[in-house]
Amino acid sequence: MTGSIYRRMGQLLFNFWPYLLISTISAFIFVLLNSASIWLMASFINNVLTDFDKIVQSQLEWASKSTLTTNEKLKYWTNLLILRDTPTESLKILCYAILSVFFIKNIFLYIKNLLLRIVELKLVRDIRDHLYKHIQTLSLGYFHKRHTGSITSIVMNDVEQLQIALGVVFQRLFVEPINILTFVTLLFIISWKLAIIAIIIIPLAGFSIIGIGRSIRRKSRRTQQKIAEIMQILTETLSSIRIVKAFVNEKDEIKKFARESSNYFKLLLKRARLDLISGPITESFGVIIGVVLLWYG
């Protein structure tokens, strides 16, 4: 069943392959420029903290060598781009380079996100159209078994969640692996010892995020069920409002709706807590890695 769902989703997404292809290329360029921006920022810090004459001397030594390590080659090429006759001129060129890389990087980030959003919106539109068309072909027996509010919730809310999920899946399947691979490669170029330290710390953050993600998925399913129940109450009340008023049953309907709304709020709050804590956890592990690299590097 799961394989059938993924196959059908793949068939739907295949219709938008030009958008996805350009978005993937833009994501790849963004990751490369992001790595370049980090390297330039490291060069900026190095130029500020290191004596200019020592930098020039190192550059002359690298130029005279026949073979250089990958780290030395990157530093040599960066210095070729940046180094000028005076420290002030060199710092000015470095600042221009950092600004240019960040500007171009954000352009590709915008292209990636825009094309992905177009795919998300078109996919949601097509799925809603297919669902509505399918609903029109169902027998009356189906509508006796399923509540109207539940069907409405599937067409509106569940499909809306699919749009959000598509963006997350694209980020995790295409962007983040390339990002991780690029950063790990950069770490190995700088120092294999520091890269091993980072690789040891990264899985700790991964286990935490995986645990939080599973809990979020469970609460998301319960949230979707709860909003379907709320929509069912709303649909039944509005469709039979004359009966409710005839029997003066407004207070009971208000209490029932308020109870379900309160339960829905509690579920949303629990999910929000997990959503909001994942960012600080990831950032904390990132800071730990950065501090370790700075301390031992």
Automatic annotation (TrEMBL):
CDD domains recorded: ABC_6TM_MsbA_like
Keywords associated with the record: Membrane, Transmembrane, Transmembrane helix
GO cellular component: membrane
Residue ranges of every copy of the ABC transmembrane type-1 domain listed in the record: 21-297
Localization terms from the record: Membrane
Pfam families with a match to the protein in the record: ABC_membrane
Membrane topology: Multi-pass membrane protein
GO MF entry, a single one: ATP binding
Main location as per UniProt: membrane
Segments traversing the membrane: 12-33, 91-111, 173-190, 196-216, 276-296
Name recorded for this polypeptide: ABC transmembrane type-1 domain-containing protein
